[in-house]
């Protein structure tokens, strides 16, 4: 029979071509900048990362996870067995049966892929991806029939040369997609690039339930700062772009995309692929950047990205909310890439849009984004009688005030928090005028030089004093202090304190009985998760527990927890202010309204500002610190649950110390 | 203002100083000087030389370089040296077509005299507070001079000239860290270094806050407020002298100065 000699030839040719394509692809990635990875332990960890960590993300969509397990599992298994049976000529009945079983599994999986593609949601890319289920089916069916004679189910010469020719055609199609296409940039590229991406991921801490969200520092002495061309990315970032399956989960979550700003995370990653391989985006078959036509963008490995491939406005639309990264089943790091490109625009080109330049100048000259006199940082607390570190040198808790000190609305949150701290007799102090902006905005706007300068000076200020914990009401400062400052400690030193968000801290105080609270008397309440508290730091529970302590049953929004939608205030987005069709804050307020909430509890002054910027009528916006401060029962000294002893106000032995 | 071929041979010197932020007192790029550099970059990016007399290691100078300059020329001299002799010596050698300065420095004497003293020494006309160089043709520059309340005066000035740049000029482009840190600070000792004795005899202290008269808003409507903000100042008693014999006009000025008690 013709297939007896044709099949091994076809398989060998397809494999050889696939390998050649893969080598070509690898050379494209290697054009990126060097980055150290642990090569062997990465490869060793890859199966686990794929089967456990990646599966956890895919599992959020049960339909797709099962479909993918069947299809991919069936394909990998059948491919191994095809090599055994049809290339190496293993003649074992059971192996043949196993192969048939694997192909059936793959076929069933592919049927579900096919079904999904009958009426695909808009987030899915079309084009070659519409062909994929057919190719999968063709592969499974062709090999199934071709294996039947070997398994002894059909006679050797069944069907004659007509069937053989048809099968050969089907096999060429199937292997063309699944093997050749894997190496040469077809949809199946994701399997090859994806597995290597998992092995050499730039943030291996993310696997095994960990979290890695702090941006990587820029080497300020480098010849070029930030990413201008695709080859300026680290090689494993380029590899990561190639792993994209164009599922569009990022697109569905992106607040800027929903607001009609010219950003679509999926398109951005595909444009990076266009950049690394060279060519145009004409073949892109997904949703465009809102307002920008597909097909006009061109790029190459050594062409400036923002000249022809991606508009700077696309990069500046991002709020760095990390919703795309959280959602990505391939664990691609969109935000890292965006900030890398912003760094070039800010640090090399000096083209931060709108108020960006002014804010950065202010941060350089006055250590706060609005150019206020740095000596007036403590004016908000003129009547608060706060202890300043310069005087006391030591305290249990350092209260990181943040730039909210300059904003009248945020000052109300700060005052509320101080009231809570005092009620719980917490031994705390502030840095006063020695505190500077955390550098969050500068860093997200790409100005790592200013961020590093602020971070180093803040570290120097903090290093003079003794404290065990930092508590802040600003999740952005919280994130910087907790996840990003460690890179900037002087050689041989590292932070020796714990950083807490005020909701976590107040929750601890309440649990330890240091505060007595009355029931909340109001209507329905919902809670808005700040991105930099939730997705960046995994704190979803404390704010909710605290609200429960107040007797509030949180009416959750559809997008909450790790799927919370950004308020629009992150990443310097209000400063760069890229126009869209809607405002992100308005969309968020609409979601709040859907819950029927009369009040939305937040844990971030930036979210407060954004949500209160929505025109009335709308839900009232209050920080959790304000809700707790309102519910405080005062005069009545709090009772520590631990020893039941009555704590005296102003006593040296403070109740709070016991719980710290 | 797009640079056109016409300006290919134009040579501009922009004089820059170390500024001082009014809130924090921290050294920075001075706002007016930065506008002078911006004007130079827009007019003749090739023929622009940015010049500073003083300490070549002053970090704030790099903020000018971050606007996209390959290098800054620095006439190195001591802290208490007078900038005018060094600058005028250098400029009389290089003979630029246009010398741009700020109106007044943000630190030091801040007398606002630089443009005048340079003009005197170099024998060039001085134009104060310009907002824009519109064009240059036949060895003459068409300028817009900034007047209060957004008004502009069109001037035509022969090259070469010294001009001070007003805050009304185009806002300076952003200073980028990368080019700033890589720019060459080409320092050479100033040919002449004259100790600024007047300044040396002064002592500096922060300004005392003075009581301010409360602004009483008389306007009742938005239209009134708009009018108040944009109307020409209606100082009376002014007199415009034009197309009269020079001696007559000089006499009128002399009489006024006498009347006001400026001269006796």
TrEMBL record, chain A:
Example GO molecular function term? oxidoreductase activity
Ranges of residues in domain 4Fe-4S ferredoxin-type:
235-265, 308-337
Keywords, alphabetical:
4Fe-4S, Iron, Iron-sulfur, Membrane, Metal-binding, Oxidoreductase, Transmembrane, Transmembrane helix
* Ranges of biased composition (kind: Basic and acidic residues): 650-660
Region (Disordered), start-end ranges: 638-660
* A GO CC annotation given for this chain: plasma membrane
Report which superkingdom the organism of origin falls in.
Answer: Bacteria
Transmembrane regions: 6-23, 69-88, 94-114, 135-154, 160-180
Pfam families this protein is in? Answer: CCG (PF02754), DUF3483 (PF11982), Fer4_10 (PF13237)
- PANTHER family for this protein: IRON-SULFUR-BINDING OXIDOREDUCTASE FADF-RELATED (PTHR43255:SF1), IRON-SULFUR-BINDING OXIDOREDUCTASE FADF-RELATED-RELATED (PTHR43255)
What this protein is called in its record is Fe-S oxidoreductase
UniProtKB/TrEMBL annotation, chain B:
GO molecular-function terms, A-Z:
electron transfer activity
Listed PANTHER family:
ELECTRON TRANSFER FLAVOPROTEIN BETA-SUBUNIT, ELECTRON TRANSFER FLAVOPROTEIN SUBUNIT BETA
| The organism's taxonomic lineage, starting at the top | Bacteria, Pseudomonadati, Pseudomonadota, Gammaproteobacteria, Oceanospirillales
Species: Marinobacterium lutimaris
Under the heading Pfam families, the entry gives:
ETF (PF01012)
In what residue span(s) does the Electron transfer flavoprotein alpha/beta-subunit N-terminal domain sit?
33-197
Q: Which UniProt keywords apply?
A: Electron transport, Transport
Question: Which family does this protein fall into?
Answer: Belongs to the ETF beta-subunit/FixA family.
Q: What is this protein called?
A: Electron transfer flavoprotein beta subunit
């Amino acid at each position: 029979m013709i297939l007896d000699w044709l099949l091994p030839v076809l398989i060998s040719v397809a494999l050889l071509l696939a390998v050649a394509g893969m080598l070509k692809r690898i050379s494209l990635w290697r054009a990126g900048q060097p980055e150290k990875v642990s090569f062997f332990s990465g490869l060793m960890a890859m199966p686990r990362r794929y089967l456990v960590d990646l599966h956890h993300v895919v599992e959020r969509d049960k339909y797709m996870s099962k479909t993918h397990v069947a299809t991919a599992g069936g394909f990998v298994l059948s491919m191994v067995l095809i090599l055994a049976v049809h290339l190496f000529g293993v003649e074992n009945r059971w192996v043949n049966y196993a192969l048939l079983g694997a192909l059936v599994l793959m076929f069933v999986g592919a049927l579900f892929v096919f079904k999904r593609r009958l009426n695909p949601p808009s987030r899915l890319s079309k084009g070659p991806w519409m062909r994929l289920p057919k190719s999968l089916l063709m592969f499974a069916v062709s090999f199934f029939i071709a294996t039947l004679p070997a398994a002894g189910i059909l006679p050797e010469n069944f069907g004659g040369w007509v069937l053989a020719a048809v099968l050969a055609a089907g096999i060429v199609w199937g292997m063309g997609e699944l093997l050749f296409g894997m190496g040469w940039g077809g949809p199946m590229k994701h399997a090859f690039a994806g597995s290597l991406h998992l092995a050499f991921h730039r943030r291996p801490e993310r696997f095994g339930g960990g979290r890695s969200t702090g941006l990587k520092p820029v080497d300020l002495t480098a010849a070029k700062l930030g990413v201008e061309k695709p080859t300026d990315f680290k090689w494993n970032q380029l590899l990561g772009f190639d792993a994209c399956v164009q599922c569009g989960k990022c697109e569905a979550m992106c607040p800027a995309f929903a607001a009609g700003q010219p950003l679509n995370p999926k398109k951005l990653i595909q444009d990076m692929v266009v950049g690394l391989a060279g060519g145009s985006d004409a073949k892109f078959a997904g949703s465009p950047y809102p307002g920008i036509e597909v097909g006009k963008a061109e790029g190459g490995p050594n062409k400036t990205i923002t000249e022809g491939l991606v508009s700077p406005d696309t990069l500046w639309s991002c709020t760095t909310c990390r919703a795309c990264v959280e959602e990505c089943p391939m664990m691609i790091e969109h935000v890292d890439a965006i900030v890398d490109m912003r760094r070039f625009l800010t640090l090399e080109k000096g083209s931060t849009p709108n108020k960006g330049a002014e804010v950065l100048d202010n941060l350089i000259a006055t250590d706060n984004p609005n150019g206020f006199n740095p000596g007036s940082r403590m004016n908000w607390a003129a009547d608060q009688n706060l202890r300043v570190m310069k005087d006391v040198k030591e305290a249990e808790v350092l209260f990181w005030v943040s730039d909210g000190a300059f904003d009248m609305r945020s000052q109300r949150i700060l005052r509320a928090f101080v009231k809570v701290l005092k009620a719980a007799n917490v031994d705390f102090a502030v840095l006063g005028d020695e505190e500077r902006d955390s550098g969050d905005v500068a860093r997200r706007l790409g100005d790592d030089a200013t961020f590093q300068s602020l971070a180093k000076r803040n570290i120097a200020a903090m290093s003079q004093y003794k404290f065990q914990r930092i508590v802040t009401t600003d999740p952005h400062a919280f994130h910087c202090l907790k996840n990003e400052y460690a890179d900037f400690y002087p050689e041989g030193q590292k932070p020796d304190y714990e950083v807490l968000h005020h909701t976590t801290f107040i929750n601890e105080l309440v649990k330890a009985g240091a505060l007595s609270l009355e029931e909340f008397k109001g209507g329905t309440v919902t809670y808005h998760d700040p991105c930099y508290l939730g997705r960046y730091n995994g704190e979803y529970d404390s704010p909710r527990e605290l609200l429960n302590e107040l007797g509030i049953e949180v009416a959750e929004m559809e997008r909450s927890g790790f799927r919370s939608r950004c308020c629009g205030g992150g990443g310097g987005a209000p400063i760069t202010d890229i126009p869209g069709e809607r405002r992100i804050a308005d969309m968020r307020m609409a979601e709040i309204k859907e819950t029927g909430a009369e009040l939305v509890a937040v844990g971030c002054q930036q979210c407060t500002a954004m949500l209160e910027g929505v025109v009335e009528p709308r839900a009232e916006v209050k920080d959790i610190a304000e809700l707790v401060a309102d519910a405080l029962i005062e005069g009545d000294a709090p009772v520590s649950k631990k020893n039941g002893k009555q704590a005296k106000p102003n006593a040296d032995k403070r109740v709070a110390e016991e719980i710290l | 203002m797009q640079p056109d071929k016409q300006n290919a041979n134009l040579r501009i010197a922009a004089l820059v100083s170390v500024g001082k932020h009014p809130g924090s007192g921290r050294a920075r790029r001075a706002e007016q000087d930065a506008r002078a550099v911006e004007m130079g970059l827009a007019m003749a990016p090739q023929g622009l030389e940015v010049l500073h007399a003083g300490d070549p290691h002053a970090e704030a100078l790099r903020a000018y370089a971050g606007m996209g300059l390959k290098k800054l020329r620095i006439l190195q001299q001591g802290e208490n040296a007078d900038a005018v002799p060094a600058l005028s010596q250098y400029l009389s050698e290089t003979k630029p077509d246009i010398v741009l300065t700020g109106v007044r420095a943000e630190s030091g004497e801040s007398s606002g005299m630089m443009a005048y003293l340079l003009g005197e020494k170099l024998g060039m006309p001085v134009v104060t507070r310009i907002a824009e160089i519109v064009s240059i043709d036949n060895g003459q520059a068409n300028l817009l001079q900034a007047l209060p309340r957004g008004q502009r005066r069109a001037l035509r000035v022969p090259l070469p000239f010294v001009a001070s740049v007003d805050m009304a000029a185009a806002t300076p482009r952003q200073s980028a860290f990368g080019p700033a840190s890589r720019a060459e600070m080409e320092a050479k000792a100033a040919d002449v270094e004259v100790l600024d004795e007047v300044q040396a005899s002064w002592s500096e202290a922060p300004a005392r806050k003075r009581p301010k008269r409360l602004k009483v808003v008389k306007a009742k409507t938005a239209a009134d407020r708009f009018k108040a903000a944009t109307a020409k100042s209606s100082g009376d008693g002014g007199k415009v002298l034009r197309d009269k014999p020079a001696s007559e006009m000089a006499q009128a000025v002399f009489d006024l100065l006498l009347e006001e008690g400026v001269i006796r």
